């Protein structure tokens, strides 16, 4: 098969779109007619540019509202089609998408559809054009691929075949297994789209909320499996109508789309098992995914390390010394390693700038990320230093792979490498919370899940004084690595790709939060204050002893409980755009204290005078 | 009745919300519990602040998932309720909202609901609290107001009554007429929300897309009419869950909400006819709405008037001279008057800064706008000058009322007031297109429709290289005044309230666009170029003669047709963030050439290198 993408997926002029698609590595593109109509490039210029870029022009689309009409309309429709066939000849495009009629069809008669589509096929044959008939999910009379396939069989014309679109099939809950039984030579084109689970009319869902494979909820690996079993060896093309993608940077969105196909081929290969047909899209196989065993470190960038260092000391972190060559220091407590970096920190009070995860084979992790088009972070290392394998995520976070180890080799590059003496009870990094500009969210989900092999959990929404914050957790199965992505409200995005007005945080876990909190308070730490009203509501919600309540309130601790266990946590004050959280999980509690997040956001809003206007 | 608003509608801390609601003129507020829980203010402090601001605390909400549960849960629920009654006593709030159970109800038995709610009412009575029972549209067992009313009747307790919410009733398509038959003393609370027509699950629709009355599609005047007929004289409160409002400026959103109630009372009064009960919300009556007879003028603000003046001259506008006192010039053609203003223009290349409309009584128009809390534009006039009555719209456009006249009196303040000699065929202003920051859109729709007495037409979406542009027309019945509001894609909003990167325009109409275009070309005007591909598509879509096509293409004219007539139009080049359009309507064509808008946006994107990133 070959990869393609519809020009309607991305922003810019037709020329900008073509350049971006070629650069991202697609084999070809679908020309969405309106992109051509509004372009100053002639069809011949478009073809010449495509040739120069090495892009095939795979499909001309859409041709609408053709079949099931009265005789006068039919004659006019044929004339309209012929003008487009002539245009396609000039573009050198041999396949046209025919959408099932949603507007002008008045006669519900399969025989009439067959007769009219056969006449279209006959006319198309004279121009060397093939018609790929697609059942739109909201087609007036034809809206399932089974129905369009019955019609195509009855048309029985070499120039008429099917277009299969995963959205139109899966959005209706239709079973795609029947695809495997369709003769491959009658499948003229395949379009792929994923989508989140939304209960809305299918047309709005389709036109605004489609996402790239791996960013939604459809089982597209299974869909691809049926396609492979049919023997199909044609074009697989992304056709994504998404309001955000259409407003975003064209090159970046094209890469996001290509990444989704690389990921999908890998998922499909896993599903199908080993064999010659397991890499159906003709993309090189992805190096194997590895389960991360934990965080290697978290990094804070700051112009002035004093405030952050002070907080770490108050929490009982050990100072491990300065890097032998860079203006970077290491702090650790148990398995939690935090790096304070003053490089490239001009104007940055403090921010969560990156993190590392540990995998069995860091080089393999790097190879996989590179194959997924993750942008490499340039990072030098000298003789005797551990190599660093890093990438920049869509939210500008720098992500590195390290090798699984209780004491990573790179820590020897700090201070004198002397033995560690913890003074607190912190055991490791629990999770990292990263702010996402809204236009990067879907891209980030696919980036982190595919490169780090994490799974996306269902999202939540957290009320705050600045608006609703959408939150989604990505994690390993065992919870060793957990990322919480927050889409920040309008006005807090900051400039560029970062969301500096909305604080990000690093959460560490402990076995004894009460003692740790007492120790931190004794060391002079000030926690984010929790209002008295919160504790009164806690008393009404949970049967907690008076003693427990007093202890929680005295230490500004927040509390949550579910059927598996309990969760206690507290927050430090915010420095710049970052803060720290300390959590204790008791029993099988596996959440993040979501009911307490509004309390935290409101307190930060009060303290820091955050404002959206 | 008295006016109120739920704190959940708006952004900020509880204190900021209370200050904004008081300033906007609400009689009281509903305390949304979470706003209190996250607040550092104690209940006593909240009460004291409310007293100082003259706000009543009308409702404590929500209390959820109470009835239809097993005995153990019931006992726990009563304990939870009692804690909240104690809290309400401290707040001085006497009414609690009880939402029908959506989470924990396991037993579908009206008798059980009645027994459990009666016990709650009995417990509430001891605290002087009344329970307002509301059927949520997605309640597990109770989801219609008819059902909740049957339960309240069976409960038959003085402390248990109904809460009626327009969203929960109208979103299900339920008939609100039955409200008139409910005894007023059993209606304990009324909540109002409007909503756009959306086909999605009711819960998502309710939690994210509610809007203030007049900004959606519900017939809330009829709803209010049923309420008036019931004899209800209690509180009418806005309860709007809207993602945008929760992110927007708190004071402005509160005023938007108050405006919606002023507008709604006026609509209700019109529906009910004259009488003592026609102003049910206790707000002073709005001065009568007037049908605008046309545009008085359009105004362009520019630092350097040469470019705009040149375009007007090329289109055959007459220069009418300088204002006798201000750095402002007047140009006219037929009934189209365009003012070029260089006041407060530093850094502005050119923008559409305002417009005037003509009404029978300008003073009455001003009084109505003032009553609708339109912010007044400070504008001085001296002896012998016409008074100006102006307001700033949410999109920062300055809007003025003038008196209906073919030659307005104020034109005498320009030049020598000598007789006008048109050289072109322009007959008047057809429409004005204004860019809207996305967060101001709903507010703008209500502002323009209520202050200028315009009606909102169904919206459309226009594809562009920068993303989808949402467009909505507001107009008088006869089309004498037409505004097209465009929500601009991300990145084009500019700073503050204006959307300067997205061009706005003034469209004038003519009886003979062919001659006018020829004349303008001869005068050296350059039109926005239309791509050749457009004319090829036009030929495929419409049966136009070759001669017509050649003429259209030669003059860069765009064309549209519907069942009523034809539309021809062209665009000038963009200067700053504005351009001009010339249109000719033939026959009964009443649209705006929407199919051509993508061509225009793409050409402007190409010419001006507009970019979103």
Automatic annotation (TrEMBL), chains A, B:
Pfam families cross-referenced by the UniProt entry: AP_endonuc_2 (PF01261), Glyoxalase (PF00903)
Domain of life where this protein originates: Bacteria
Keywords, alphabetical: Carbohydrate metabolism, Isomerase, Lyase, Metal-binding
InterPro entries hit by this protein: DSD, Glyas_Bleomycin-R_OHBP_Dase, Glyas_Fos-R_dOase_dom, IolE/XylAMocC-like, VOC_core, Xyl_isomerase-like_sf, Xyl_isomerase-like_TIM-brl
Binding site for a divalent metal cation: 134, 165, 191, 239
Domain VOC: 428-573
Enzyme class (EC, first level): lyase
Keyword Phosphoprotein tagged: no
Pathway stated in the Swiss-Prot or TrEMBL entry: Aromatic compound metabolism; 3,4-dihydroxybenzoate biosynthesis
Record-linked HAMAP family: DSD
Protein name: 3-dehydroshikimate dehydratase
Organism: Paeniglutamicibacter terrestris
Lineage: Bacteria, Bacillati, Actinomycetota, Actinomycetes, Micrococcales
